[in-house]
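Dig into what follows:

_____
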Amino acid sequence: MDTIGFIDPYPVVRAGFSTFLKELGQHNECLISSDPTSFARQHKGADLKLLFLSINSEDSQKSLTLMECSKNLFPLVPIVVFDETYALDLLVRYFKIGIKGYLLKSDPGIHIKQCIQTVLAGSGYLSPSCWQTFMDELTGKTNERVVRGRRTHTVVSGAPLTNREFEIATLLSKGEKTNSIACQLRLLPSAVSTSKRKILSKLNISNIIQLRDIMDVEPKGPQTQRKTGSKGTAA
């Protein structure tokens, strides 16, 4: 049995992650806490094999402080960052500090499972959701992006929608609700809400009506029959 730690300030997120590990069926033990210092005190002496650190890179200074604190308290434990928002400059700094893996909170469960298996095997892991963006920015490709679909829209922030964000954007445009999307894509509702905020921000829009126009899809609902003129009837 591998002991995996998870640090997040919100009890509901900690409980959700613990439940997810149990559902993996790999006999992992999950130890949880609200911050690195509390974790070290509450689980002193635990044979920790892996530590997930939940952060939000929008607050860069706090994220870096949590990272450095965790490395100091658990110098021999591989750390995986569980991030709210992707930022290239901070991602590079995280790996320089010494993390072994990086995931987004909007990532599907299969990515979390792959990350755990990869890091426990001794290798590093970078979320597939941000891999292409990471490589594009490193190689200096153009910042002008478009969303896939019949209509295009420049991504003002310079970052394209990930495959997962595009899936969520499509479902939102069709009128699907957060809980329904979470169920279909096997995500937490909070992850869908986070992705929704990121999608609207990237596209520089403020509501689903604007998103529907960009994605060029019809809202979910009964099909409207088109009225056509009679072209003649059989006698």
In short: The chain has ten helices and six strands.
